[in-house]
Structure prediction request, 99 residues.
Amino acid sequence: MLHIVNKSPAQTTGLASCLRLAKDGHTLLLIEDGVYAATTGMAAASGLAAATKRLKVVALAPDLEARGVAGRLIDGVATVDYAGFVDLVAEHPTNESWL
Prediction:
């Protein structure tokens, strides 16, 4: 399953709910303000640092760059461009967007 989070953990509890319910081996894609969760300083507080051990965590590179945080990505988080985003959606028949 592909889980998509587009809000910062400082804005909503969507990421926390996602991390609580996602099963080992699922993929988590962070887009828009959701990419802040994958940055140093916020990853530990949001629980994302621990989640990288059981989930495949991916952040949308253009959103990291647009927010000026591309250089602050934590270990264990991969990046994709828009074509990679499409590939993730295509390879996961089931996806959930967390608001």
